[in-house]
Every structure is written in C-alpha cells, then in structure tokens.
C-alpha cells in the first residue's frame, strides 16, 4: 500500500468517456495506490480553456489524460504541456498518426464519433455533462452553444428544469437573474427562440423563498424573501424577457415535468 496521491485530469473535446476509461484501465494496474483523484473536463474547444486547465494541472502536479481529435488544439496542448513540464498524454494522437501514415488518408477530426454507435444514450450523457458545466451561469461561453437557455430569478426551478431537459438530450444552460448583476453579453448573442424566461406570481416565489430561509436556519427578516424584493426581481426579469424577445413560461404550481413539456413543445414548434 502506498500513500502517494495520483491526480488525473481527464480532458476531451467531447464527453471524455474514452479518456476516462483509458485512465481507469491504467489505474487498475496499480491496486496498491488507493489515493486517486480524478477530475473531468469535457467539451474543451478553445486554447483559452486548455491553458486554464493545464495551468491548474501543473499547480496540482496532476497527470493529464486527453482525447482531443482536433489536430491544432491537440498540438497546442502538447506543446504547452512540454514547455511547462506537465505530464500530458493524448490517447488518440499517436494512433491517429499511425493510421494516417499507413492509409495515406487524413482523419475527419470530428469529436465524439465513437458515441454515435448508441447516439441516443450518449446524446443524453453529453447533454447532462453540458448542463452541469453551464449550470447557474458558471460559464458564459455555454449560452451561444445551447439548444435552450433558461433565465429566471431565484426559486424558479432553473437547475431542475435544465437537468430534466438534459436527460432528454437537450443542451441546456441557465442564468440566475439578479437586478444588481449585469447580464452577460453572450445572452444577447442567443437566438431569441432558444431563450425561455421563467416567472411566477410574487407571493408564490416569496413563499418558496421563505421556506428556503427557514430550512437554512436564518432568523429575522431576510430581504431575499421579502415581497417587495421579489416584485422588484420579477419586474426586472420580465423587462429583460421582453427586451430579448424570450418566451415567458409560468412555473407556478407546475411540476418539473409539466413545465419541461411546455418548454419542449414551444421549442419544437419553432423548428430550430
């Protein structure tokens, strides 16, 4: 048994399932290593994202296992890793070059082709990964890539709806709306037909927030759950929906399934 910690970053321009399997297959050869820490970075499509995660890998002294099919990005990642003394292995590069040289045919460089063997299943996996990565406005770059963008103030079920729709194969991102926080410019780049603004009555939201405050054990009056605050936030959000041309969806007293079905119906009707 060894106390050495092995950290691995799994990096891919698709879901990253192949890189993860390679890493786990190799780690299985070292049963005495019990301290393993694996982080997964799917849908890496830019040099900026690659630099950020490779920098973190260097700081954490992690091994990077990648499946990057884009030759430009793969070459950039390898050169950056070599320059900064980061342990980096692209599980596809060497074999792609071998087959390319043997067959004298260029690869198509399309990520995720293996998953097309069971497209429906892997579409859902990919969509769930996407929803997690771009949940709660974590990364503004996800908005233009989304099938659907959900906007709403706190307690309008943005995350549950995103995950439910992702399970149906849709790439969904969401953004919490707070009057004091500027709207990311990427939101204005999204086709209005893809944007859904969630809303409900002020008292409905207030009651849900009040229960949330109780659960969190917050005593005294909380501005977050006050009726006036909720009214201000709803006014701000609905004005934004009108400006964006977003479709408004009332979530009041509806199950996640009902609201998701309504969103999906409107989305399909637009024939995007």
UniProtKB/TrEMBL annotation:
**Does the keyword field hold Kinase?**
yes
The transmembrane residues are none
**Which InterPro entries does the entry link to?**
Kinase-pyrophosphorylase, PPDK_reg
Q: What class of enzyme is it?
A: transferase
Q: Detail which positions bind ADP.
A: 152-159
Q: What's a single GO MF annotation on this record?
A: protein serine/threonine kinase activity
Q: Answer whether the UniProt record assigns the keyword Protease to this protein.
A: no
Q: Which domain of life is it from?
A: Bacteria
The catalytic activity, as recorded, is:
N(tele)-phospho-L-histidyl/L-threonyl-[pyruvate, phosphate dikinase] + ADP = N(tele)-phospho-L-histidyl/O-phospho-L-threonyl-[pyruvate, phosphate dikinase] + AMP + H(+); N(tele)-phospho-L-histidyl/O-phospho-L-threonyl-[pyruvate, phosphate dikinase] + phosphate + H(+) = N(tele)-phospho-L-histidyl/L-threonyl-[pyruvate, phosphate dikinase] + diphosphate
Enzyme Commission (EC) number: 2.7.11.32, 2.7.4.27
**Which keywords are on file for this protein?**
Kinase, Nucleotide-binding, Serine/threonine-protein kinase, Transferase
Classification via HAMAP family:
PDRP (MF_00921)
Q: What does this protein do?
A: Bifunctional serine/threonine kinase and phosphorylase involved in the regulation of the pyruvate, phosphate dikinase (PPDK) by catalyzing its phosphorylation/dephosphorylation.
Q: What family is it from?
A: Belongs to the pyruvate, phosphate/water dikinase regulatory protein family. PDRP subfamily.
Q: What is this protein called?
A: Putative pyruvate, phosphate dikinase regulatory protein
């Amino acid at each position: 048994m060894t106390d050495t910690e092995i950290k691995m970053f799994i990096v891919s321009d698709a879901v990253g399932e192949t890189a993860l399997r390679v890493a786990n297959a190799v780690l299985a050869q070292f049963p005495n290593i019990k301290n393993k820490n694996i982080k997964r970075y799917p849908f890496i499509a830019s040099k900026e994202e690659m630099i950020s995660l490779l920098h973190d890998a260097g700081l954490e002294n992690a091994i990077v296992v990648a499946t990057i099919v884009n030759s430009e990005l793969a070459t950039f990642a390898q050169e950056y890793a070599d320059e900064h003394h980061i342990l980096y292995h692209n599980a596809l590069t060497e074999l792609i070059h071998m087959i390319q040289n043997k067959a004298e045919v260029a690869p198509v460089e399309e990520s995720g082709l293996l998953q097309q063997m069971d497209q429906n299943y892997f579409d859902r996996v990919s969509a769930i990964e996407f929803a997690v990565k771009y949940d709660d406005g974590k990364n503004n770059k996800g908005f233009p890539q989304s099938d659907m963008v959900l906007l709403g103030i706190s307690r309008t079920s943005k995350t549950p709806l995103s995950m439910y729709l992702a399970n149906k194969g849709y790439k969904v991102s969401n953004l919490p709306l707070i009057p004091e926080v500027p709207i990311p410019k990427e939101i204005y780049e999204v086709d209005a037909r893809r944007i859904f603004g969630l809303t409900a009555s002020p008292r409905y939201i207030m009651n849900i927030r009040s229960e949330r405050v109780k659960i969190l054990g917050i005593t005294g009056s909380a501005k977050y759950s006050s009726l006036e605050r909720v009214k201000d936030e709803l006014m701000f959000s609905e004005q934004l929906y009108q400006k964006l041309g977003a479709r408004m969806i009332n979530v009041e007293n509806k199950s996640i399934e009902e609201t998701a079905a309504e969103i999906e119906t409107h989305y399909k009707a637009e024939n995007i």
